[in-house]
Please model this.
Amino acid sequence: MKSEALVEWHHLVGGSFIAKVNRFAAMVEVTGIERYTYIPNPTPAAELLTPDADVLLIRMSPHHKTKYRLLAARIGSLWATLDTSIPNVVFREGIKRSLFREFIGRTVRKENVRLGKSIIDFQLSGRRITYVEVKSYTLVVNGTALFPDAVTERGSRHLRELEAAAAGGAQAFMV
Model:
């Protein structure tokens, strides 16, 4: 399923996490009813998926096995994305609406841009070449989101490529 189709904002609903059923499923309370819900990211996310945690879901079309897909969970004042297909959509929309003060006045020039041996999520407009890699996180310790939340050679390579680009005069961000 394309992430664009996933984020139909009027289909978003809030809920309360009950328990994991397995790596890809959970029980979530939505409007007072327990619902079997798809978890697109098999990470344990033990710090996030605790009983009664606030969660954000999207209502799926009737042909899906589950009625809901888990998008994010709240820990304190932070929302952590559990669906790795969503952050790029949110970032792109945030750029359009000037929601990120660091990028006000910028537009998305290109997506999925080759940088060294990596594909970086965004190149933004501006006087200097600006690369932005958008990452999800599911590890929160003492109220701080941490990345990487699992061993990832690909994620580490992305960060090294951004570091090299910045050393060469580009702007580089991880969001």
Summary: The helical segments are 3-6, 87-96, 153-167. The chain has a mean pLDDT of 86. The chain is about 15% helix and 40% strand. The chain has two domains: 11-81, 87-174.
